[in-house]
Input
Amino acid sequence: MSQEPKTMKAWQLQAFGLENLKLVITDVPQPGPHEVLVKVGAVSLNFRDKAIVDGFYEPEMIPKPLIPVSDAAGTIVKIGDQVTRFKVGDRVTSHLYSRWIDGEPAHNEPDYCFGAPLPGGLAEYMIMHEQSAVAAPDSLSDEQAATLPIAALTAWYSLVSYGNLKAGETVVIQGTGGVSIFGIQIAHALGARVIATTSSDIKGMQARAFGADEIINYSKTPDWAAEVLKLTGGKGADQLLEVVGGDGLNDSILATKVAGRISVIGFLAGQTTNLNLMQLLFRQTNIQGIAVGSRTAFEQMNKAFDQYKIKPVIDMVYPFEKAKDAFKHLTKGAFGKIVIKVA
Ligand SMILES: NC(=O)c1ccc[n+]([C@@H]2O[C@H](COP(=O)([O-])OP(=O)(O)OC[C@H]3O[C@@H](n4cnc5c(N)ncnc54)[C@H](OP(=O)(O)O)[C@@H]3O)[C@@H](O)[C@H]2O)c1
Output
C-alpha cells in the first residue's frame, strides 16, 4: 500500500511575474500506467524557469496555473502498473525534452517539456513518464543531480555529442553561469584547453579552479575575440559555446578557427542577430543551434561524470519555502547553479 499523502505543497505560477508565484496545497498527482510518482528531493533553476515566470519565454504556450521548474531529482515512490524501466525506491532526474530518447529530435519536443507546458518539479511530488526519467548518478546527492538535466546536458551535448571534443583542442566558454561552468568542467576533464570569458576577475579565479586555463574579462577587454586569437597563435579556438547570442555571434565567429564549431545555446544579449555573412563564409564556420540533448546523451554524460568524478558547482541551496529568493538570486547572477531543496 502506498504511503503518500493525498495533498502536497507546491509553488504555482498563477499569472506572469514572481509576485504571482504562490505556495499552495494541491492534490498529489497519480501516475498513469507508464508513469512514476517522484518524491522531489531538489530542483535547480535555469534561465528558462525565470523567463517563464517573467512571461517572456513563449508566453502563449505557458498554461496557468503552472507548477514551474523543469530540473528535478528525487525518489520514485509509486509506479504505474505497466512500468518496467524503474521500481519504487529508484532515484531519478527529469529530462527536459521528455520524449527525445535518441537520434534527431522530433518537431514537437518543446510540447513535452517539464516546467512548461508539463508540470515541473517545484512541488513535493511530480509525475514523470518512465521513458523520460533518467537514473540519477549514485555518486551525486539530489541537490547535485538536480543540476544536470538542462545545464550539464546542454554543455555535454554541445561539446561532446555535437562537437566531438578531443583532447588537445581549444574551447571558448562564455561566462560563468550554470551551463558555462559545466562546459568548463567537461572540456577540462576531456583534456581540452579552456578559455573562459567572464565579467568578473573573482569569478575568473574561481573558474580556474574548475578547469579554465585562460581567463578573459570581457568587460575590461571588449574585443575578447582578438584576445582569443592571440592566445591561439592567430588560429582561433576549435569550438565555442555561445551563451550570449545577439550580435556577439560575430565576435564568436572571429574567435573560432576556420571551419570551427559554434554551439549556439543562449540568447542573453538578444534573441536575434545581425550576422556578418562575408565573415561567416570566409571562415566557413559551423554554427549549430542546440536545445538540451537526448536521453541517450544524458545517460552517456552521467557515466562520464562518474568516470571523471565531475561534481556540479552549486552557488547556493535555498529551502523550499524560500523559492522566490532563489529566483531573485538567479536574476542577480550566479556562479554555477542555484538549487532549491524540496524534501
Ligand atoms: N539551448 C539550450 O538548451 C539551453 C540550455 C540551458 C541554457 N540556455 C540558455 O543559455 C544561456 C545561459 O544560461 P545559464 O543557465 O547558464 O544562465 P546563468 O546561470 O544565468 O548564467 C549567465 C552568465 O552568462 C554570462 N554572460 C552574460 N552576458 C555575457 C556576455 N556578454 N559575455 C559573456 N558572458 C556573459 C555571465 O557570466 P559572468 O558573470 O561570468 O560574466 C552570467 O553569469 C541563457 O540564455 C539560457 O536560456 C539554453
Q: What stands out?
A: The CA atoms of residues 21 and 203 lie 31 Å apart. The pocket of NAP is lined by residues 46-48, 150-151, 154, 174-180, 197-200, 203, 218, 243-244, 265-269, 290-292, 330, 333-334 (CB under 6 Å).
